[in-house]
């Protein structure tokens, strides 16, 4: 009987991991569509190239060394598909609570689920440095980010390792359910480091402090990308329950799905209203970022709030992302897609809200955890960006930026038939 239960739970939990991982992988398409919609037409091909290439780089680097750094398992050499069925079955049989115990799944499914999170963190960087960064400098940074920088802070958090042997975040009461800080704020910290060294796009800020809008080329694509991200987020948060094969876990998954959706809706509504009050218009870009902000906020803890609480938390994120985007522009920090605000600032908000509904988590632990993640990723990224800037340069020439990086970096245009004089 126990053997049959083991095989059933193993199959259910493994399949659930794989489906949720596929949903998170689909978020790569969401980032690609959102970013290509929000950049100018002359930079579309390059941003799409970056998004596809960074996903491939992330998958390879996490396979080679990232997973081993984060969890101690050497996927590249050991062959993660090999499973000690007898050993796992023995562990299962000795449980006091049997079928309602922890999740049991294929190690390969765990790697697959983890690797798409790494790619998500790197995708956040792509939009923030858009329209003026060299493609190959970006891809070299992706090697370090996905192979070393992200896995190390992941080891200190989800991996349970001590931070440089000094302190353990879990012992301090830190918790980040699906990665508001570990994934999203980390990606934003890396992006911020790059943006500061890169500088703003030419003409974005005037000599007297004026801020010039650079409208995106394709709002339908941006809206489609947001819906894809919204859908993929159910795998992002839902899969982080780690188990489906019993009543309690199934109920938890359902609640996580419900709260994830509620927070996104709350963020979208709040951002739309905030933009209307501030600008006098219904700003689509703020609406889209509001939905993403709500999703980022609830990612830190989607299992313990009520649906109404999740909606309110998402609304806080929606308001905050609009204020943050405006503030960063005033500080002349040029982020074409609002990634630093939506994923970084709102990622921090998500971490700080966790103790409100989760009594096992402390505010001090969340603050220390957030500082640990941000400082490590920002400083390490700043060093890597700085070395790349000195060795190969990270910014295209002024002429290339004016003509668009599609031609200079990729040799093709995304919309050639719409260019004047061309058929």
Describe this structure in words.
This protein is an all-alpha fold. The protein has helices at 2-38, 44-71, 75-78, 85-93, 107-128, 135-157, 180-198, 219-238, 247-279, 284-299, 307-330, 339-357, 363-391, 398-403, 405-410. The radius of gyration is 22 Å and the shape is globular. The N and C termini lie far apart (70 Å). The model has no long low-confidence stretch (mean pLDDT 92).
Task: Record keyword descriptors for this entry.
70% helix, 423 residues, mainly alpha
Q: Which class do the helix and strand fractions yield? A: mainly alpha
- Cα-atom radius of gyration: 22 Å
Shape: globular
What's the average pLDDT? 92
Distance between the termini: 70 Å
Put simply, the count of helices is: 15
Low-confidence stretches: none
Number of strands: 0
Q: Could you state the order of secondary-structure elements as H and E?
A: HHHHHHHHHHHHHHH
For the sheet with most strands, the description reads: none
Q: Report the sheet-strand fraction.
A: under 5%
Give the helix level as a range of percent: 55-70%
SSE blueprint:
Layout: H1 2-38, H2 44-71, H3 75-78, H4 85-93, H5 107-128, H6 135-157, H7 180-198, H8 219-238, H9 247-279, H10 284-299, H11 307-330, H12 339-357, H13 363-391, H14 398-403, H15 405-410
Summary of the model, kept short:
With 423 residues, the protein is mostly helical.
